[in-house]
Design brief:
single chain, 296 residues, mainly beta, Porin, twelve-stranded antiparallel beta barrel, 1 helix, globular
């Protein structure tokens, strides 16, 4: 959350003088406890990220935009729900059911030194991002077959002491591509992305932070009717940190997102999704994603 890891965006760039605005809410619940002979980590809490993401087609094949996040870090309200969910489906609690409900404690110790401790709720502006895109390819007879080169510059505007930002300036560059097929049962689409992000020295575990991270995504969607689409997507990235034997700190991560899109009109839609960590203990236990979108 604190770094500039981008959403992959769409393979099609906005038409000239057209705008796209999204209000995005991501609620992430964390619980993990691990240790070895040199290190210990406890991440117990909840974070909510509210984003205003606006893009505009400045010329044919070019778009620009800005993303302004507001961050809430606290003990949250989902602990009981998640414990019940794990119990109902037989998933392991991994100590979650023994921890105090609604607690906020993010703590990391290494070689007897406490390098991170957050135990007070906070809220504030996060790290603002400036975004851009260029249409690399779009089929003349099939515009859904497309590829775009995208860029994002994240500025250190958030308070890194409260985990509202990383304290680093991050530049991401990636390619997003997609294709779509009309079938008897509706439309089926495939989409994916791959890219790299470079980061200056941040302020969160700065001695262990890496300066380069690779990331990518692969997903599919099926729309049986114009007003609804079902989607599944896998996101992955390499580790942000080094010099640790804890997978919570130094391991590649992958998440699985399942959800869909409801279309209220041709210009207004709502995305709803649930994200799980498929490489265990490298991402939050669960993230609930909502995005209200309007095109102008």
């Amino acid at each position: 959350m604190i770094f500039g890891l981008p959403s992959i965006g769409e393979a099609s760039i906005l038409p000239e003088r057209r705008a796209d605005a999204r209000l995005i809410v991501d609620i992430a619940n964390n619980y993990v406890k691990d240790s070895n002979t040199r290190e210990s980590i406890l991440l117990d809490g909840e974070s909510t990220r509210v984003d205003l993401d606006v893009r505009y087609g400045i010329a044919r094949g070019f778009e620009c935009g800005v993303e302004i996040p507001y961050i809430f870090v606290n003990g949250g309200f989902l602990d009981g729900f998640i414990e019940g969910y794990h119990s109902t489906f037989g998933f392991p609690q991994n100590g979650r059911d023994q921890a105090p409900k609604g607690r906020l404690l993010y703590q990391y110790q290494r070689d007897g030194q406490e390098l991170l401790k957050i135990d007070s709720s906070s809220s504030g502006l996060g790290d603002i991002r400036l975004n851009g895109g260029y249409q690399l390819y779009q089929g003349e007879d099939k515009p859904q077959r497309a590829a775009a080169l995208r860029m994002s510059l994240k500025l250190p505007t958030g308070d890194s002491n409260q985990l509202h930002g990383s304290g680093s300036t991050d530049l991401s560059l990636w390619i997003t591509a997609a294709d779509d097929w009309k079938l008897a049962g509706g439309h089926f689409s495939l989409f994916g992305a791959a890219g790299i992000m470079g980061m200056t020295e941040g302020r969160v575990l700065q001695d262990q932070q890496r300066n380069w991270v690779g990331f990518g995504a692969l997903g599919a969607g099926w729309s049986p009717w114009r007003w609804i689409a079902f989607k599944i997507q896998t996101n992955a990235h390499t580790s942000f940190y080094r010099d640790s034997e804890l997978r919570e700190v130094n391991a590649a991560s992958a998440q699985l997102a399942v959800g869909g899109t409801l279309a209220f009109s041709d210009r207004t839609t709502l995305d709803i999704g649930v994200v799980e960590d498929i490489i265990i203990n490298t991402a939050p236990d669960v993230v609930f994603h909502f995005a209200l979108r309007r095109r102008f």
